[in-house]
Amino acid sequence: MTRLRSRPFRGLMSGTREDGLLSLEFVGSDVGLHCCPIWSIDDLLALPNILGPGIYILVGAPADAGGKLRAIVGEGGMLQERLAAHANDDKLDFVWEVVAITGPRVMTETQRLMLQRRFVDEINHFGRARVANPHDADRFTRTEYESAIADRVMEDLRPLFAMTVPGIIADIEPVLLPIGARIAFLPRGVDLDRELWTDHEMRFKGAHALARMRGRETVIVPGSKILGCTKPKLRWLRDKRDLLLRSGVLRPASDSALLDVVSFIKFESAHEAATFVAGGASVSARLVWIPICLP
Questions:
Q1: 241 in any annotated domain
Q2: What is the pLDDT of residues 52-77, one digit of tens each?
Q3: Both 251 and 127 in a single domain?
């Protein structure tokens, strides 16, 4: 984790937020940040730096009262054209602030895609907004050099964001744990004290399963329908399904792509149950299991 250290501002600054357009850049940084309210986006589009490639963040009103702000994170080889198109998009009428990042270090497509994904992750997990991008960021293949450049750019941008749009990303580099070290969150509505059973349902590609949960303990109830096909690499899943088919707990459904659950099936966790229902597909148990009230 990068330590929070004081850094005197030695750079270039033009305009103010009250004027409608603010541009900041550290000396020797090679990356600049430009910020303006949506009503003065024409001034931003007139900047020479916006003619080339860059990254942008659109910040706007929350979808629900009391919710988090919404943010759109994007990149483009022609930043001016991309921002002009967004300014005329009726679907983005909630946007009230525009942040643009330009400079030689965000020129290549790989570097822009790397920074876009890092901004998306930080805003979602550590910022005061939620990302409302209609599509996920594109995949990319990076080198160690490009990773080092992205780290340097983020280090330079954090104090600039703190001065222009505070709280939109973390003030210091957050600690990123590997997936295996992260805490698995239980589905919404589950009793963490393991005292009460709660009812949940899952729908996935035609499958519709009902389950009862208490803490991590999960039981799929009769009447559920699960996907019949399984991933060939998940041996435990194939073995468990073969055993349940032989014992009559599972049987073919009227739809050849599904299996009917005839009796209760117990699992050690909601994630294991979700994988079982989805035929081995990679799904998030917290997202796919929805709390319900059964009559």
A1: yes
A2: 899 999 999 998 877 889 999 999 88
A3: no
